[in-house]
Design goal:
Strand 16 (about 475) and strand 17 (about 480-485) form a beta hairpin. Helix 2 packs parallel to helix 18 (about 445-455) and helix 5 (about 125-135) crosses helix 8. This protein has a domain at about 100-230 and about 465-530: Alpha/alpha barrel (Glycosyltransferase). The protein is mostly helical. The protein contains 19 helices and 17 strands. One of its GO terms (molecular function) is calcium ion binding. It holds the Pfam family Glyco_hydro_47.
């Protein structure tokens, strides 16, 4: 029996009724359903609107869904689709946009997707397109007196553009979550200016006066590098910054002591000031936000990346093993935010009642019942197909091999199948706590890059031989895997923040000896000067 006049879908069989192969194939079918809907109605645009079957440009019109999907296509073995996507990417003209380019989103989606496609396929074109694009993004960094990048670049003028945040501030999550991409590009090209420019961000952060060392304000003045707010969050506008601290440390093969200390300080402060269990639910942990040092008991689904970041810290940083239990309780909290709703889908923002009885907003009778029974209630009830809880579940399964995490991921996929599968793809919904939610007609590119990818990888066989060992690959914040290679900056202290001005940053022009062929190096150096379009004739 269908739930709502045929609009929604019958649930899939329970996890224990299907083999891992059957579950992985179900995820692949869902991906292809959304991919073919995009191809049919919106090819070349950034997104497909999955309810109205119509295109939308939200990321400068370069085909964000195509670039963000490259590695997922490759991982799923969809080689015909990958080849078609490659042909599209080869013809992208980054200079074609008339809109300001948001540096962070462009970096994690486009640059991240291209670098991952290169690492998987070893196709020179992807690396060249990434280098071309990053060159155009650099004014956001080089025009900043403090090293904190501006939010936008105007590709027509080549000038940086301030954000619309108060005072033109830059966002913590954005300025601190492009370094993996820049470092990987430096490794591939042998030009270390990208790495060094990315690391300049930490000049300002290292000298910033903080109320709680390790916890940074969500807005920063790019002119001065000073805090532009007193709000601290591991959710939206803060999240990826903390994620990249531990991931940069792992990516450096445990050589980046600067990021190790930053992550250790951040986790210590997180545990002391922001982690809390809801009243009568000690098995759960949540992360509050801080406003001038006062904690606010609300948490974004975006912050549900944190269990994976804490787990990685426990496994890769000596002396942090004790945080693993907190990471597990935090994941329990995130998963409960999913399991406690009528749809089985987590809200964008959820709240709880603190042990002292404090909460945010007025508690309706329904929210009070949820808080008492589950420890959590919906604060913003919408959902836009976010992947963060799935991301953390993936890491926990990879590092523990416990069946329970596969079961969790299947329950989430089943809920998405039931309520979010629309006419030509998957749509966000307006409320997770009704059996009859309304679709929002949006399917962002991260659905292909992250949501489907983490679900698919959960069912890889054999489970004791992961496709992406976490000491050999690092996923960027958009779910794009980068290969860890033994190529380090020219000097040993380049992984820590450098006080050198950009004009004197050393640029290594010697072909690297690992991970890249001399032919690729020569080809990139030749074509980087012109920043022209890359065509198939070059290969």
């Amino acid at each position: 029996m269908r739930l709502y006049d045929g609009t929604f879908h019958d649930p899939l069989p329970a996890s224990n009724e299907l083999t891992n192969e059957e579950k992985q194939n179900a995820v692949k079918e869902a991906f292809l359903f959304a991919w073919n809907g995009y191809k049919t109605y919106s090819w070349g645009f950034d997104e497909n609107r999955p309810v109205s079957n119509s295109p939308l440009n939200s990321r400068n019109g370069w085909g964000a869904t195509i670039v963000d999907s490259l590695d997922t296509l490759y991982i799923m073995g969809l080689m015909d689709e990958f080849k078609e996507a490659r042909e599209f990417v080869a013809a992208i003209d980054w200079g074609s946009t008339n809109d300001h380019v948001q540096v962070f989103e462009t970096c994690i989606r486009y640059v991240g997707g291209l670098l991952s496609a290169y690492d998987l396929s070893h196709d020179y074109m992807f690396a060249a397109k990434a280098a071309d694009l990053v060159e155009r993004l650099l004014p956001a960094f080089t025009e900043s007196p403090s090293g904190i990048p501006y939010q936008y670049v105007d590709f027509k003028t080549g000038k940086a553009v301030k954000s619309k945040y108060p005072g033109g501030s830059s966002c913590l999550a954005e300025v601190g979550a492009m370094q993996l991409e820049f470092t990987r590009l430096s490794q591939i090209t042998g030009d270390w200016k990208y790495h060094n420019i990315g690391q300049r961000v930490y000049n300002s952060l290292d000298t910033m006066k903080l109320l709680h060392p390790g916890l940074y304000p969500h807005l920063i003045n790019p002119e001065t590098g000073a805090p532009a707010s007193s709000f601290v969050t591991w959710g939206g506008m803060g999240d990826s910054f903390y994620e990249y601290l531990i991931k940069q440390y792992i990516f450096s093969q445990s050589k980046d002591d600067h990021k190790k200390k930053m992550m250790t300080d951040s986790v210590d402060a997180l545990k002391r000031y922001m982690m809390q269990s809801p009243k009568n639910h000690d098995d759960l942990l949540f992360i509050s936000s801080l406003q001038e040092g006062i904690d606010l008991p609300v948490m974004d689904e975006l912050a549900c990346f944190a269990p994976s970041a804490l787990l990685l810290s426990a496994r890769f940083i000596d002396g942090m093993a004790d945080i693993e239990n907190d990471a597990k309780r935090l994941l329990n909290g995130c998963y409960t935010a999913w399991a406690s709703t009528r749809t089985g889908i987590a809200p964008e923002v959820f709240g709880w009642v603190s042990k002292d009885g404090s909460t945010i907003g007025d508690l309706t009778r329904h929210k009070e019942r949820l808080a008492k029974q589950f420890g959590v209630f919906q604060f913003d009830p919408g959902y836009i197909l976010r992947p963060e809880t799935l991301e953390s579940i993936y890491y926990f399964h990879q590092l523990t091999q416990e069946q329970t995490y596969q079961d969790m991921s299947w329950e989430i996929f089943n809920a998405l199948h039931t309520y979010c599968r629309a006419n030509s793809g998957f749509s966000g919904i307006d409320s997770v706590d009704t059996f009859f939610p309304k679709w929002d007609n949006r399917q962002e590119s991260f659905v292909f890059a992250e949501t489907f990818k983490y679900l698919y990888l959960m069912w890889d066989e054999p489970t004791n031989s992961p496709r992406f060992p976490l000491d050999q690959w690092v996923f960027n914040t958009e779910g794009h895997p980068f290969r860890i290679v033994n190529i380090t900056p020219p000097t040993s202290d380049d992984y820590s923040s450098s006080s050198s001005p950009l004009s004197t940053v050393a640029q290594d022009t010697t072909p690297p000896t690992q991970s890249i062929s001399e032919d690729l190096w020569n080809w990139l150096k030749k074509n980087m000067d012109s920043l022209g379009l890359v065509t198939d004739s070059l290969f």
